[in-house]
Design brief:
One of its GO terms (molecular function) is metal ion binding. Its cofactor is Zn(2+). One of its GO terms (cellular component) is cytosol. The chain has two domains: 223 residues, Aminopeptidase, CATH 3.40.630.10; 68 residues, Beta Barrel (OB fold (Dihydrolipoamide Acetyltransferase, E2P)), CATH 2.40.50. Helix content is 20%, strand content 23%. The chain contains seven helices and 14 strands. The strands form two sheets. Strands 1-3-2-4-7-5-6-8-14-13-10 form an eleven-stranded mixed β-sheet, sandwiched between helices. A three-stranded antiparallel β-sheet has the order 9-11-12, with no helix packed on it. A hairpin with a 2-residue loop joins strand 11 and strand 12. The longest helix has 17 residues. It is globular. The structure holds zinc ion. The site of zinc ion has 4 residues, from loops. Zinc ion (ZN) binds next to loops.
């Protein structure tokens, strides 16, 4: 790849958190001893997205304890992270395969073997015990932060209650393979199991870690696991987001590159909103890709997309002050 992706933040030293305290490497179980929700926060699902891990490691070193319930912190792909090289930072996303595309009973119970499949099987009881799960990610290409939830309205309500700044995108589509937030316990509305994923910003930018931390601490606060006034991390440094009512968008379509010639008409930033329906945004071989409706958000456009992979998700604004329209997806 021709692009240079500068690493503008320190690469964390995670050796002191790698063992964990729960019998599974990289898994930390913090139990308040009081009734309350079982929450799991996952970092390093992708080995080169380490800013969520920087937040969790800092919390562990500061002696964070939930005020109620139990909190489990996960450093998911330490093997891939250990290969991180700032000179070539995109290579360490995974070792054998993408750890965030294997989360279905069929794959986890099946016979496929890889470093990531073994890790997913080891983490499976941890994530399946979660009543609430937050998966911390960041993005390669320039993009505004975004919180992604599945189609359970309760997950959307929780994302709103967390009060973090990114817009919320309701997304039940998974053409690339099942993500952790799509895993069976979380994907079925009404089970009482909720999963959120935050894309906290661009990889290796300082703001990304602040957004990841705001989302994680906002979630714990919304669940009564952190006292409302307790400053955590960046908030202790005076950077507090309050009274945020994030916008809600619903994924309306998923553009998969059908040819090797897929090309956006210009370098769109993730989160850009195209006002007019029918605007040409990309060419895919002979085909023209146009926005299907007015006010179309481009969610995580990927300029260097391989054939068969998702080039961009499209999203439609949900009516303000009301729930989103939830349709089977
Ligand atoms: Zn990721």
């Amino acid at each position: 790849m021709d692009e240079v992706f500068p690493v503008r933040v320190p690469v964390p030293d995670l050796r002191d958190v790698a063992a964990g305290n729960a019998g599974i490497p990289g898994v930390w179980h913090l139990d308040s001893g009081r009734p309350g929700p079982r929450v799991v926060i996952v970092s390093l699902m992708h080995g080169n997205e380490f800013q969520g891990a920087s937040v969790l490691a800092r919390w562990l070193r500061a002696g964070l304890r939930p005020a109620r319930g139990a909190l489990t912190l996960v450093f998911a792909n330490l093997d891939a992270f250990s290969r991180f090289d700032p000179a070539d930072p995109t290579l360490s996303r995974y070792v054998d395969e993408d750890l965030n595309r294997v989360w279905s009973p069929a794959l986890l119970d099946g016979g496929r073997d890889s470093l990531e499949m073994r890790r997913a099987r080891a983490l499976r009881p941890v994530v399946e015990a979660a009543e609430v799960l937050l998966d911390l990610h960041s993005m390669l290409w320039p993009s505004d932060p975004v919180m992604i939830v599945g189609r359970d309205p309760a997950a959307l309500a929780l994302a709103r209650a967390a009060g973090a700044p990114p817009p919320i995108v309701v997304d039940g589509m998974r053409p690339e393979g099942p993500r952790l937030i799509d895993h069976a316990p979380f994907a079925v509305p009404g089970t009482g199991r909720l999963a959120l994923l935050v894309e906290a910003g661009q990889h290796w930018e300082p703001e990304t870690e602040m957004v990841a931390e705001a989302c994680a601490s906002g979630l714990l606060r919304a669940l009564g696991m952190l006292p409302p006034a307790a400053p955590v991390g960046s908030e202790a440094r005076g950077e507090v987001w309050t009274e945020v009512w994030p916008e809600v968008w619903t994924v309306s379509g998923c553009v998969v590159a059908a040819s090797r010639g897929f090309c956006f008409t210009r370098p769109f930033r993730g989160g850009a909103v195209i006002p007019r329906a029918g605007t040409l945004i990309a060419r895919d071989g002979e085909a023209e890709i146009r926005t299907p409706h007015d006010d179309c958000m481009l969610v995580m456009p990927s300029p260097r997309v391989m054939r068969g992979h998702v080039a961009v998700r499209l999203a439609r604004r949900a009516p303000p002050g009301r729930g989103v329209q939830v349709t089977p997806g």
